[in-house]
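re: that complex we talked abt at group meeting.

here r the seqs, copy pasted straight from the sheet so there may be weird spacing, ignore it
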Amino acid sequence: MSKVVLDESRSDESTKGHISKILISWAVASIIGMSLVWFVLGPHLPPGTMTDQAAGQQFDIKFVSTLAVPVLFFVWFFFGYSIMKWRVRPGEDPLAGGANIRGNSKAQGTWYILTTVIVLGMAVYGTYFLVVPAGAGGGEGASPIWTPATKNMLQVQVIAQQWRFTYRWPQFGGMETTSLELPLNTEIQFNVTSLDVIHDFWAYQLGVKADANPDYNNIAFAKTQQTGRFVVRCDELCGIWHGAMYNYGNVVSQSQFQTWATNMEKQNAAVTKLLPKYATTYTPSYSGAGGGYYNTATDPNASL
Amino acid sequence: MAIDFSKETGIGSSGGAPSGSSTGSGKFSPSVITGIIGGGVGYLFGHWLGNAIASGYQQVSGSGSNDVATLLGYLFATVGWFIGLGALNYPLKKMLGIDPDFSEPELGKGMSKYFKYTVDHKIVGVQYLFGMLVYFFTAGLLALAIRTELLSPTTHLWGPDTYIEIVGEHGTMMMMMMTSVILGPFGNYMIPLMIGSKRVAFPRLEAMSFWFTPLSYFILLSALWQGGFQSGWTSYAPLSLQQGVGQDAYIFGFGLQGLSMVCASTNIVATIINYRAPGMTWSRLPILGWSMISLGFTMILSIPVLIDGLYVLALDRSAQTAMLYDAHGGSSFLWENLFWFFGHPEVYLLAIPGFGVVAEIIPVFARKPVFGYKTSAAGMIGLAILSFFVWQHHLFQSGMNPDMRPLFMLTTELISIPTGFIYLVGMGTLWKARIRLTGPMLFMLGVYFNFLFGGLTGVYVSDVPINVTVHGSFFVMAHFHYTIMGGVIFAFFGAIYYWTPLVTGYQLSEKLAKIHFWSMIIAFNSTFLPLFAVGLLGQPRRVFEYAHRLQHLNQWVSISSYVLGLSLMFFVVTFIWQLAVTRKPAVRNPWGSRSLEWAVDSYPPPQHNFRQVPVVLAGPYEYADPDALPIADIVMENKDRAPVGVDR
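got the structure back, here u go
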């Protein structure tokens, strides 16, 4: 190996000049970028504000996006500046060494402390926004510990099976519907379960997502605060028609909901009698789709 | 140092690798042909046996498919394949007390040695390189098939079953094969050279690790002919219990690849620990070595959990146990836990070697020692350790252990700290450097550019409230494509451009490398950046129907993915063209590296790497220290001093 030639200019350069150039341009760009994300993009970020939980998620996405801007810019500006400034120019010795720096305890220490503080801060932040809005709309298992203050909630059971969702309403005689209407300004408890494989109940605009597991009741909460249409999609792969497993629901005024629910209860009365007693889970059996979900005493197919 | 010159280790006076078991010559010498024959015979036997055992059972005779026969077919095909390859000759001879043949045949110049079970780590490395390219491009074509379907929200090119089979096949092949994308070609080839060894610790394990992969590839692909598996690469139970025999191909293919990874990582860890040349202390070990040792330990600890899970799944499907079936006392959560306990370390198995390559190559083109050598090693070890404590973040919405979510959110976010180390190292190394923007260097910078998006969106998905929106959506899909494809695959191509002169003796064109890089990084970002928006706007993964309002974004992505495909095709054509036709001889030490692998006598390196075991005198990164000793007591001739990629 031939002797290392050094480019002395690299070692002699003042560090402060470079750092201040990078930092000043970074700070200016970050302030502009952060304001754009917070004020311009922020209000349009998904999943909207149809429920308390959705609004919380929207705020979180806005908050994290705003914080991501300076990190992104810092790396970009640093790399861009270094490449422009310290590139080997034509005619220079390509193998001459740069500054012989193996490390810098000040820079490294600052980096370690800063990233640790940011990361711990993010974890505290995330925990707070998970606990306070009653699980933030996510599936909280069979016995949730972060619950809304009120015990007076509308109970909606979401039953997933290959490949559709149905809904049971224990407060309306245990009726089962294929459509989902929800009243405005109401605390809702979704009890999500499955009759066959793992599905996922994702009510996008409601900010609710909970896996539907067989033999398991997965609870999620949401408080409606806007009327409108929302989409429900299955969000865990559940077989060939997974892509077609979706339907729509509406958040309507409380009086409209009452009318709808009482009508449905009347319409479905004959069918409701055939259903098994309302339960948190229904054990499927080998006898076809839905299996033991249907009342064995009255279901003519049950003996198959 | 840790070199044992005694006869027992197989390092004789010549000090080289032991001979392969395929030393015979003539028509019937073991090769890939006899392997295929053996595999075929084994499959037929196993399938017959399975039918003989199980066809009488009600669940088999009633279903029209026999999982026992399929699984036993694959099992005996594997045994037959290795017998045919001659892999078992040596161990069987040893067991029978016959003295194995230690004569060392000179490996010829021809291509036939690449189609044999050989124990030279350099041949295994080349086999891996071309194998990985084949696997990557197969799975890449499947990705283009997915994107073609998604051109329209309602018109369908494939049936919903074929579509979801393609999705599962793409995901499984990429995830199981690409884990070895750096370890296989570059770990096996470069690590012994870099640490000054004439051989690897367990050459037969290493050879076996490669020969698992073609079998695993064909078994996995065979699922497409057998009705596929509609359960994706995650194959959650009980959906995976519903599937036809295509699911058995998934189980067996993935399992074989798991065994391959265990073999490969055991060998690489043992090699790095025991076969370093005198003077190659831990603080002089190249960063790639640190990444390989972190990777190796992570593989050894996590892959058995996958194999265990696959075994449970196979038993549930064939022997009718009910470990994953809720109604009979099992739990579908069990599979989710076992799978992700492997599956999360798995994604760092993909990321860590990428970081290793980056930190290895950047100092060469920055003419500086790597900044914070210990920090970069600590970053990779930290990633490896933390990867075992985060798996439930894939299951935040599953309802499992819901009150543990803050803990898993914390551990997941802690991952940002060691990942940040990798950025600190890169940025520090570029500081006051002398940067040459060669083809390989551009790919390394590309890794930093892409991984930044992957890393930052990782904070989104780890935050439980945001995870409610993005879990299972295209946002997550874009996130991990940025970390894996944007990270390790870019590092892989950069490594190909960097080490091809050494491996083949031919120089690749810098101009073509740069065209490849720029077209690939633009098309890559144009493909995956909009997918973050698609996911946030509510498109779930693995669907063939989506909202009409998302059509324009999806079309943009699909067309970009074709451009990405063309860019990769450009690589294939120019790479083969330059190796087969133009064949420009490589100059000595073309990049001006100090590392030991370039100090060998010839490119490609001779059979036993070094004439004698080198004595290492200094670290590999002393680019800016005029008083540094040469790396070892070998004269690294570089008279022409005409490194590539510099205008003079």
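couple things i noticed - The first helix of chain A runs from residue 8 to 12. The longest strand of chain A covers residues 154-161.
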